[in-house]
Design goal:
2 domains; binds 5'-O-(N-(L-cysteinyl)-sulfamoyl)adenosine; 23 strands; globular; BirA Bifunctional Protein, domain 2; nine-stranded mixed sheet; Rossmann fold; five-stranded mixed sheet; alpha+beta
């Protein structure tokens, strides 16, 4: 992409309405624009990152055996009356009427609808296990939308729903999601700690939140310090095998959100020097709730014994749009965002320090063509801005590499390659820089 033809409305001023760094940087880097309280337009740069994050989450869901579909944003109120949640959900639910006075709602989550789809088609244990997921906009009329995409009213969620014959099967499904979540967050450059959590309006008796530690987090959390550095199991686990030991390793150490915190247990189980009390951002939340929806909505399957029983369910959410804020909170400096390689909106920036200079233009065009062909998705700054402004914009938008090409260097056969994360610069020939960069592709 040529910057001269892109739409990147960066802000010079620091927006005063933004209280936390990720919100400020997303506004300044021209990623999002607030259209109403908690409702954002995703500008091209932000939209590119959203798609990258979504793709990482998708790949890890697919790896764990979940199957993607897409449900609508609008749902019939009658469906929610079947589970009893239409009245129970309260003012967070956006209720809508169509021209026939039919009651609809903008979905805050999809347990009811997925149960309706399941019961329409699946009748036998032979179709199980099944895990269906989608990525869709949700609406919750939050009392205090704030911190940009962190707590929006309209936000983008990945939600998965598992169906199993019995509790043992449902636990295996839960464990698969537990591991898939750790892997997805690790790929996004995040250290996410699973913590025992309250189930709130989703319900059920087993639940973990995945928390990224950050000073600006909305939740107070308590955990054993070792959990933060434990790392993810990686993609090569036996997804059909027994994942319980991997889960147990992470759930046997104390970790709880404020609502579930037991100070006496915390002090008993965690040595004083390992006690971590911190703020955290909830990036994912998984629930096992058994028959909470399948019983009232009569989603039953016939078991091997010929008996019908309500299917055992769990649901698994990731705040995809919130993740952008969490990644920025975890990875930025005074100059701007530092995107982890896998989710950067462009693979690198090519900075032309003197557009119009034939030698520099030629070198830049060569670099741009070679890097594009290698699939690196370069953003080529071919604009006539001052050099200082170009560097500031590149640092602000946080692409992993900057390839800087100017008249002096070009005369000497040299370019400069800068790693955004470390600030390290290296002078080398254009050929060497291109082969270094394309080797990473
Ligand atoms: N049905 C379940 C799981 S699919 C569910 O809705 N869980 S949830 O309420 O915990 O939401 C899942 C994830 O969505 C949360 O972990 C959080 O990362 C994200 N999320 C929830 N509310 C918001 C919000 N207002 N703005 C941005 N992200 C949100």
């Amino acid at each position: 992409m040529r910057l001269s033809r892109f739409f990147l409305p960066v802000l010079k001023e620091t927006p005063t309405e933004a209280q936390i760094v990720s919100h400020r940087l997303m506004l300044r880097a021209g990623m999002i624009r607030q259209e109403a309280a908690g409702i954002y337009a995703w500008l091209p740069l932000g939209f590119r990152v959203l798609k990258k994050v979504e793709q990482v989450v998708r790949e890890e869901m697919d790896r764990a055996g979940a199957i993607e579909l897409l449900m609508p944003t609008l749902q019939l109120a009658d469906l929610w009356r079947e589970s009893g949640r239409y009245d129970a959900y309260g003012p967070e639910m956006l209720r809508i009427k169509d021209r026939h006075e039919r009651e609809l709602l903008y979905g805050p989550t999809n347990e009811e609808m997925i149960t309706e789809i399941f019961r329409a088609y699946v009748k036998s244990y032979k179709s199980l296990p099944l895990n269906l997921y989608h990525m869709q906009w949700k609406f919750r009329d939050e009392q205090r939308p704030r911190f940009g995409v962190m707590r929006g009213r309209e936000f983008y969620m990945k939600d998965a729903y598992s169906f199993d014959l019995d509790e043992a099967g449902a636990r295996r499904a839960y464990n698969r999601m537990f591991i898939a979540y750790l892997n997805a967050f690790a790929r996004l450059g995040l250290k996410a700690v699973p913590m025992r959590a309250d189930t709130g309006p989703i319900g059920g008796d087993l639940s973990h939140e995945f928390i990224v530690l950050a000073e600006t987090g909305e939740s107070q959390v308590f955990c054993h310090g070792d959990l933060v550095e434990m790392g993810a199991p990686g993609p090569d686990v036996d997804w059909d095998g027994d994942l319980q030991p991997l889960v147990d390793r992470r759930t046997s150490l104390y970790a709880a959100t404020e609502e579930m915190h037991d100070p006496a247990r915390f002090e008993r189980e965690v040595p004083a020097d390992r006690r971590l009390s911190a703020r955290g951002i909830e990036v994912g939340h998984i629930f096992y709730f058994g028959e909470k929806y399948s019983a009232p909505m009569r989603a039953v399957v016939t078991g091997p014994d010929g008996q019908d029983r309500p299917v055992q369910m769990g649901s698994y959410g990731i705040g995809v749009s919130r993740l952008l804020g969490a990644i920025i909170e975890a990875s930025h400096d005074a100059a701007g965002v530092i995107w982890p390689d896998g989710v950067a909106p462009f693979g690198l920036g090519v900075v032309n320090l003197k557009p119009g200079d034939p030698a520099v233009d030629t070198a830049c065009e060569r670099a741009y063509a070679a890097l594009s062909a290698a699939g690196l998705e370069p953003l080529y700054d071919d604009t006539f801005e001052r050099a200082g402004a170009k560097f500031a914009t590149m640092d602000l938008i946080g692409l992993p590499w900057q390839l800087v090409i100017g008249p002096k260097g070009t005369a000497a056969g040299e370019v400069e390659l800068k790693r955004r994360a470390t600030g390290q610069r290296e002078t080398l020939s254009l050929e060497a820089a291109l082969s270094r960069l394309t080797a990473k592709a």
